[in-house]
């Protein structure tokens, strides 16, 4: 299938991850809008990886580098935008009471990849103050996860895991118990935090003005 092959390129992964964020920025559920691609193509890749592993018990035989759950494992920790990194940045360096209040409310849910309180509470939607990290963090994290998988540092994702599984643990389980996959996921969370941090600090100044 040509579309399956096309979907496995790094450029396709980056583009799709970016489009999910772009739709969300305008208040549309990016994953639902792109479900025909996310589920119809990458979901098939996940199912085929699962079937091949069940038949061979050999990770080296898995045909697809990137699957539906790869997005959740490496580019959606805490929800779209990897906002768990944003929440941590707010706790550490935000001086804005409104942002800190949102973070306190959102943190327990963020651990389970639910972040609507952040998206609509801060808000992220239609907020130019946060558009840059919102759009670039997930593609960067997806790139790291993709390259680590393509290089053989971590195995491809081949198991379906509930999307509410916490970051790190999700990648560990989805790869059949790869500690390195869990570490890559947590590394991406650190990357997210570092990218969100200067924008959180900048928001302090905007509030002060």
TrEMBL record:
It is a multi-pass membrane protein. It comes from the Bacteria. It is found in: Cell membrane. Pfam families: PTS_EIIC. One of its GO terms (molecular function) is protein-N(PI)-phosphohistidine-sugar phosphotransferase activity. InterPro entries: PTS_EIIC, PTS_EIIC_3, PTS_Sugar-EIIC/EIIB. The chain crosses the membrane at residues 9-28, 73-93, 132-158, 170-197. Residues 1-199 form the PTS EIIC type-3 domain. One of its GO terms (biological process) is N,N'-diacetylchitobiose import. GO terms for cellular component: plasma membrane. The keyword Isomerase does not apply. This is PTS system, lactose/cellobiose family IIC component.
């Amino acid at each position: 299938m040509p579309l399956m092959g096309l979907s496995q390129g790094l450029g396709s992964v980056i583009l799709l991850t970016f489009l999910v964020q772009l739709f969300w920025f305008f208040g549309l559920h990016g994953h639902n809008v792109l479900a025909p691609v996310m589920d119809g193509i990458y979901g098939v890749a996940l199912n085929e990886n699962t079937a091949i592993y069940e038949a061979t018990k050999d990770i080296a035989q898995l045909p697809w580098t990137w699957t539906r759950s790869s997005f959740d494992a490496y580019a959606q920790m805490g929800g779209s935008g990897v906002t768990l990194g944003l929440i941590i940045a707010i706790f550490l360096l935000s001086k804005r009471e409104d942002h800190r209040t949102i973070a306190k409310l959102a943190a327990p849910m963020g651990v389970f990849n639910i972040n609507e309180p952040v998206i609509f509470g801060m808000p992220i939607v239609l907020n130019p103050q946060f558009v840059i990290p919102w759009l670039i963090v997930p593609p960067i994290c997806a790139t790291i996860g993709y390259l680590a998988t393509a290089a053989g540092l971590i195995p491809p994702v081949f198991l379906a895991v509930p999307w509410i599984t916490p970051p790190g643990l999700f990648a560990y389980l989805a790869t059949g118990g790869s500690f390195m996959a869990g570490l890559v996921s947590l590394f991406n969370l650190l990357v997210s935090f570092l990218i969100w941090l200067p924008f959180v600090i900048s928001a302090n100044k905007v509030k002060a003005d």
